[in-house]
Amino acid sequence: MRGMQARRKRALMSSLWADGAAGAGLPSLAAVAADRSAPLPPGATARFALAFHTVPIAGEISAGFGDPVESAGLGSIPVRLDALGIKSTPRTFALRVRGDSMTGAQIDDGDLVIVEAREPKSGDVVAALIDGETTLKRLVVEAGQPYLKAENPKYPDRIPLRELTIQGVVRALIRAGGPPRPVR
User: 140 and 149 in contact (C-beta within 8 Å)?
Assistant: First the structure.
């Protein structure tokens, strides 16, 4: 009996992510994640809502040629970090992506990325400060030398002239109208 109840609940939650509770005129869970004032869909309990963590949207980041450093908070978004394998820490934040240099990694203009301040490794998608500009790129280390690689052939590799500071590793991606998903 328990297994059947769990399957029904998973099916309900999956359908809520996919199409919302359209018949009831309520938003999908993805919309709830984007709008804290939205009512919970049917079947979602207060306990379910407590599983969400408020992640601050620290600002925007260029997925292009890079921008001068700016910090402008854009509010916050509730996200089920545990479902994404991310620990909730004060060093976890979100950034809105501007540009198309990461489309090959399925990161598009307008997406939100969930970033965790942790030690990066070669191959990670990172939020970085390179020579005074912020950008979102893939970190590559070859022969001990790090550089940033775009996932769009229109953009050149970024080799640091003076400094390269990794601000965090992208752990998840949130698309408008869709559920969060891990980034690989």
Answer: yes
3-state secondary structure of 5: helix
| pLDDT higher than threshold 90 for residue 135 | yes
What are the boundaries of each domain within the chain?
A: 1-50, 51-182
Q: Which helix (H) or strand (E) holds 17?
A: helix 2-19
Counting every residue, how long is the chain?
A: 184
* pLDDT > 80? residue 131: yes
Query: Both tokens of residue 66?
Result: 């890079």
Q: Catalytic one among 15, 37, 88, 101?
A: 101
For 43, other C-beta atoms within 10 Å of its C-beta total 13
- Catalytic-residue membership of 137: yes
121 is catalytic: no
Which among 28, 62, 137, 149 is annotated as catalytic?
Answer: 137
CATH code matching the domain that covers 51-182, chosen among 2.10.109.10, 1.20.120.1460, 1.10.10.10, 3.40.50.2300: 2.10.109.10
Single pTM value for the model: 0.66
- pLDDT, tens digit, 9 for 90 and up, residues 54-87: 888 888 888 866 555 455 566 778 888 887 888 7
Distance in angstroms (rounded) separating the CA atoms of residues 36 and 78 = 7
The SS3 assignment for 85 reads coil
Residue 67: φ, ψ to 5°: -130, 155
